[in-house]
Specification:
This protein has about 70 residues and is mainly beta. Helices cover about 10% and strands about 35% of the residues. A hairpin with a 2-residue loop joins β2 and β3. InterPro entries: DUF6993 (IPR054262).
Length: about 70
């Protein structure tokens, strides 16, 4: 996910990534990444081999994700 975001022009320090392993060591159902573009977030998700991309507003925190940033 990070490589795809960087290839699309994102700045590495601004890319937010979801975890890919649960606290118990299992693979997650979906992996997400996001980066700010002006006042919006470009968010990508991979689930079951399918890719979805959406544009959503930036959160009040100035970030795209709620919770831990990886």
């Amino acid at each position: 996910m990070l490589a795809a975001m960087l290839e699309a022009g994102a700045v590495k320090e601004q890319v937010e990534l979801s975890v890919d392993i649960t606290p118990t060591g299992l693979a997650v159902d979906a992996v997400e990444s996001a980066t700010r573009v002006a006042e919006e977030c470009v968010i990508g998700q991979v689930r079951d081999g399918n890719v979805a991309v959406m544009v959503l507003p930036v959160l009040a925190s100035g970030r795209c994700f709620v919770g831990d940033i990886h």
